[in-house]
Amino acid sequence: MAMVALTEEEMKASVVALILDARPEEALDVLSRWYRVEKPRLGVGVVEGKTKGVAAVYSSRRREILAANREYLYNPFVMVHEFYHHLRSRSGRHRGTEKDADRFAMNFIETYQRRALERAEGR
After folding, report:
1. Quick check: is 21 in a domain?
2. How many folded domains does the chain comprise?
3. Of 14, 46, 55, 82, which one has the greatest count of Cβ atoms within 10 A?
């Protein structure tokens, strides 16, 4: 399927909307095409010693986002945060911080919220 040309703002808002609509695989498709990277696998489970008290982790070795439970697959902050780790791990070693991943995810959510407000106000 051909992807319609989106602005960066439209892409960010659509990624959040897809995740909220319980379509995280499609959101990862959009993100991967936008950033021109291989799409990470998506799973539910735990990684020994890595998931205690966290919503999800990214395994660069497996190229997989692993959510602690299904509910986190539908959380835009969690999914975009972990995609950031995928994006920053392309070379096989991670370059980036948790704060960077948080900012990356919050930017998507803030863009979605701003666009939703504009639509509600008829702009």
Report:
1. yes
2. 1
3. 82
